[in-house]
Amino acid sequence: INSHLDAGQFFLVFDGKNAHNQDIIIKAYVYNEPLQNLDTVKSSEIYFRKLSEHSTEMNGIVNFTYIIQENMIFLFRPKFYKSYNFVEFCSYQQPVLEPIEKLFIFYQIYNIINKLHKIGLAHGDLKPSNIFINGHDLDLCIVDPAPFKPNRIQQSRLHVFYHYFTTLPDSGCYLAPERISRIRQKDARESSSQNSPHQKNSPKNTESKNKIEDSDNSSDKEDDDSDEKKSDENDDIDEDETRQVDLKMADIFSFGCIIAFLYLNGEHLFDLSKLHQYANGQIDIRKDLSSIND
User: Average pLDDT in the 180-201 region?
Assistant: First the structure.
């Protein structure tokens, strides 16, 4: 290990050298129990093996090698000296890219993602900082596939984003909106009831108490309660966070955000707060994209 580069709640990043004196990046993750017992680790091992088996046809994707030691896992990949991080490349374009050069970059990223999806794998964490590009011939590669990162982030636990997907507040957010679970109405009512100092009963008892206190209960109120209950039941179905996320489709959304980053000269289309609003249908991004003419 040469030096420490980054840190999160669950991981550390270093640069170092392997046994052949080649420069590498090392990501070290630690957990509170033996990792071999975790389904996520087992499925990740299958993912990395499959990617390795298809390495000859997967030019452009940089796979990890790894070592598991009890409750720690170490991921290794090459370090790129002659390539720019895509964040730096798009933010400080000198000279400014020609339209045909942007199209070539677009094609390369699309082609790499398409090849990955064809063998049944998704990247899981596509973003500019996981792309490296050679400034001379614009040849690029995508690094850090992430089968071990969570498919979903609950709206009530958005801080998880900073544990797994970035350590920087200004890095943008490239997750698909379906990867942020909306809070189900039933859960929200139960949480509100449990957190209130005046409510020690269940939501059902709370509703009964409200009916007693309301001396003006009428048939209209009962109808409203019935409609609200039906609406809540529908919300529970629509907002069920257990439904599966299609990570390949999520990759495509992330890819679109990366291309927007390229054409907007290094401006993020979303940060976490803005994506949260977009996931709830509260904002329209067409105005942000209107400056892209191609």
Answer: 47
Residue of 268 and 237 predicted with greater confidence = 268
Could you give the CA distance from residue 247 to residue 287 in angstroms, rounded to a whole number?
27
Got the DSSP string for 137-152? T--EEE----TTS-S-
Cite the DSSP H helix spans in 144-183: 160-164
The one-letter amino acid at 69: Q
**Joined tokens for residue 207:** 């509703």
- Overall pTM > 0.85: no
Amino acid at 74: F
Tell me how crowded residue 126 is: count the other CB atoms within 10 A of its CB.
28
Cα→Cα distances 98→87, 101, 103, 288, Å: 18, 5, 9, 21
Are 51 and 58 contacting, i.e. CB atoms less than 8 angstroms apart? yes
Cβ atoms within 10 A of the Cβ of 58, count?
A: 20
Rounded Cα–Cα distance for residues 218 and 208 (Å): 14
Do 172 and 268 contact (CB within 8 A), yes or no?
yes
Q: What CA dihedral angle connects 253, 259, 265 and 267, to 10 degrees?
A: 10
Q: Of 31-35, 62-66, 166-170, where does the model show the most confidence?
A: 62-66
Identify the residue with better confidence: 6 or 194: 6
Q: Which of 179, 61, 177 is closest to 121 using CA atoms? A: 61
DSSP lists the bridge partners of residue 66 as: 75
**Both structure tokens of 75:** 């991921």
The answer to whether residue 285 scores a pLDDT higher than 80 is yes
List % helix, strand, coil for the chain (3-state, nearest 5): 45, 15, 40
Interhelix angle for 185-195 vs 203-213, to 10°?
A: 70
Give the SS3 label for residue 149. coil
Question: H-helix or E-strand containing 155?
Answer: none
The strand pairing partners of 30, in sequence order, are: 72
Phi-psi region of 164 (alpha: psi -120 to 50; beta: other; left: phi over 0): alpha
Q: Which two tokens stand for residue 145?
A: 């596939």
